[in-house]
Design a protein that fits this description.
single chain; alpha/beta; TIM Barrel; 12 helices; 42% helix; binds zinc ion
């Protein structure tokens, strides 16, 4: 895949979506574009730039269509990802020219009803509708379609989520026609042993090529440990957010998503190429800080600086 050419791990930046939707302030479109420009200049290859949900639900992301169009025009090679809650959102995403559509589906049906106000059966119908929409597009114009299983490692409403339920959902999403399945630790419940176990179980069921990405949160400080566990079982894409933007609503002082700067630093230190340069990544962080004055940003590497003699992976 061209996206992985010359790199070992794809760091997928989700700050403009996951980060911005978690704060009350609305970042003006021009500032979003400048921030995304700076991220792309640092070598970030995939960015989730927004979500096609009704503006009244998430005013922070109301400009997603405009952002997708502007970013595709400015960075044709950048893989522009968006969240789509349903077929209507997918239609808008396709019209705007997004490269990747991700439909979130919660492993916990309680969470699904509360968050997306849909049962699993209703979401499967949306998935089938989206697959129909995509099938009608000509080759080369068809965005990638991922079904993302959220609360895969545990749920704030239901507690433990059985592995078998996640595996069954992954099988169902592939059977319906998703290109890929992703696992999300929405609530920051995952531990490394669990990551290895659940990734292996899903790979056994649908094949390693259909599940290459993890969306991890750092709510309880295990985000990077969980990344290492994922690497050990063949995961090659990790979502993260610059500055851990948005923080974590349940744990003051903790980042929500894992911090992009720390993730890139760890991977490069381990000899794994990300294609991302840390110096311009810190420039992008400044864009973000300037656009949202006073908003807490997280990260150990940004605070401590690079170790003496640090060398990026070659
Ligand atoms: Zn998230």
């Amino acid at each position: 895949m061209r996206l992985m050419e010359g790199i070992d791990v794809l760091v997928s930046e989700v700050g403009p979506r996951d980060g911005l939707q978690s704060i009350d302030r609305v970042m003006p479109t021009a500032a979003k574009l400048a921030w995304i420009d700076a991220l792309a200049a640092a070598g970030v290859r995939e960015i989730e730039v927004g979500s096609f949900v009704p503006a009244r639900l998430l005013p922070q992301l109301a400009d997603t269509g405009e952002v997708v169009r502007a970013i595709k025009a400015r960075h044709p090679a950048l893989h522009v990802a968006v969240l789509v809650p349903n077929a209507k959102g997918a239609e808008a995403a396709i019209a705007a020219g997004a490269d990747k559509l991700t439909l979130p589906l919660s492993a916990s049906e309680t969470h699904s009803l509360k968050n997306l106000r849909r049962t699993h059966a209703q979401l499967f119908e949306e998935v089938a509708r989206i697959v129909d929409l995509l099938s009608a597009l000509p080759d080369g114009k068809r965005p990638q379609f991922e079904g993302a299983i959220s609360t895969a490692f545990g749920c704030t409403l239901e507690g433990e989520v059985p592995d078998a339920r996640v595996v069954a959902l992954a099988e169902k999403l592939v059977a319906l026609g998703c290109d890929e399945v992703g696992l999300s630790d929405t609530s920051g419940y995952a531990n490394p042993a669990q990551v290895r176990r659940l990734v292996r179980a899903v790979h056994d069921a649908i094949g390693p090529g259909r599940m290459t990405g993890l969306h991890l949160h750092n709510t309880r400080g295990l985000g990077l440990a969980n990344v290492v566990a994922g690497l050990e079982v063949g995961i090659t894409t990790f979502d993260s957010s610059q500055g851990g933007l948005g923080g974590c609503p349940f744990a003051p002082g903790a980042s929500g998503n894992i911090v992009t700067e720390d993730l890139v630093f760890m991977l490069e230190s381990m000899g794994l190429r990300t294609g991302i340069d840390l110096a311009p990544l810190m420039v992008a962080r400044r864009f973000l800080a300037d656009a949202l004055p006073g908003e807490p940003l997280y990260g150990f590497m940004p605070d401590a600086g690079l170790p003496l003699g640090f060398r990026a992976a070659a």
